[in-house]
């Protein structure tokens, strides 16, 4: 009776149909069977089923990258003349910089954190008034963001950083601002809860990637790129945790001392040409990365792509003012995070790509990024540390004495004839911006080209000189690094046309819950 039941007949008919539809395989040779076992079942763009489709992967990565490169950003206080479009354009520019290399934003945040830590120590060591609120990291970040402006009788208001503010307080030019953390929080437009939720979403993506790797499921190239963003974003979020976001209005501090008197009391350093405001002599410190960055930004300026204020003095502190990583452990942390960031791309060395050429391109791009980081530190160390020491060591002592005597004689001659040169102004003499010294204009074209490469700033500020032995190789290093990041972005996108089937499998969270239980 069981064999005549309808369910059994239906199952039997389906089995027979499957056997008829499936061809009977011949006996495969050893070579053919090995080839078949090594093939990976792949598929192109996959619509969203009940689980995970192509659009789910893209949407998850795009949302996470947005949180890492847009929501995490903490911009400096804008100028009172800035429109909403300018502020939006500034945020878009930093977002693009983050997309090109999220480690840039990490370095920026780490430098600001390092400057804020130093500011807290300096303020607490200099000011001991119990009636004033304690200077904290929030105060330091607020000051370094341009939260305080100095108003003098003879000059327009200019933004102050924390070091300039302390300088003015110690010399009794202004009174210490009575500003509490609550006052700063009132200006902060980013809720701590929103920032916390963003971090949770980023962490959830990280947990998902780790779980997929633990189960042996395929992780796409776009997800690897997003994981690299997550790594740098978490570091930047930690550094910026006490920094306000989207603060729009600064505080104005008034003094009866003129700017001329402040500069006069500052000595020779205050008389040099300034780069942003007349108080640059207090806190300005150029280092190798800030010099490279200024040089590249000036190249964009010549292409009429301008991000910095166009008029001196600046009416805001730039978002891409790069403080040195002088805090203990800051440099090792940045190097470790950068290498970990690149290691994520190298981890996909044997991952599946639609073609062998694309896999090779991924490998070359990942290795190029690692090589660029190594070359950056090697070239910089040679140009700024090793070469000057070798030059001083191997240069004969007699040449140093002769050179010193020539410099003294030239300085004396310039001092005697300075007024005559200024009054006559011969045709072959030019005047350096911001200085009364006169220099000969007759130069060879080669030396002029070398000088323009070494220093392409508007005012030809000598403190912005970059050694040619560092600048010329950096052109190649910078181009290679940006090209490698762009190639990886392209490979992330075109990989979706042919992905292994396991890339669309979902994580079995029940197995983890079972282990926890």
Automatic annotation (TrEMBL):
Signal peptide: 1-21
Designated name of the protein: Uncharacterized protein
The species this protein was found in: Hyaloscypha variabilis (strain UAMH 11265 / GT02V1 / F)
The keyword Mitochondrion is annotated on this UniProt entry: no
Listed transmembrane segments: 57-77, 192-211, 217-241, 330-349, 361-387
Keyword Signal: yes
Keywords assigned by UniProt, alphabetized: Membrane, Signal, Transmembrane, Transmembrane helix
PANTHER family, sorted: DUF4220 DOMAIN-CONTAINING PROTEIN, TRANSCRIPTION FACTOR DOMAIN-CONTAINING PROTEIN
